[in-house]
Please model this.
Amino acid sequence: MNATARQTQRAQAIDRTVARIRAIEAEQGVTPATLEQIKQALLELAGHSELFPLSDFPMPPPGAERNNALYRLSEDPDHRYALYAQVSRGGTDTPAHNHTTWAVIVGLQGEELNRLYDHDGQGGVKERETFMVTTGTGIAFMPEDLHSIHMVPEKAVLNFHMYGLGLEQLHERRYYKPKTHDWAHFPASDGIRDLPLPA
Model:
């Protein structure tokens, strides 16, 4: 498959998947059961791995400030239903944080360790469990669920990250600072890249 055909088929597959996800949320609202259905829709999209080769999502160059990048695959005009491809050369770590909107992560290539947390009742967090997102698996989060992300250095990762509201619009997220035992503002994401449209 040449690059133009792949871009066209990828765009069509993404459009179908996002339309399905819009319908799921419109009919059922946002619940854990709803997010499981959304996760399943994204897993089916990820099953078309030929449409999402790592070569189509360039990594930041060695020595760049960030060792990961987000590519916007779809986002409604009102910034809802934002789907991204996240690539990382490995070594990415985040603190425990919330999203303030629903989120689903699905694996295409590599491994992304998610640590899941509860509030500990004393202003901090306690780890509840871990989940490895890898090819053919995924995890879903309600708006106030807490998690952190960890990737092994020097191992390429490509995942879907989907949010009920685009990352650039999430201005109220918070993350936990264990050294000072307090919470801080997690700035909205910037530097998100757009893939070229099919010719």
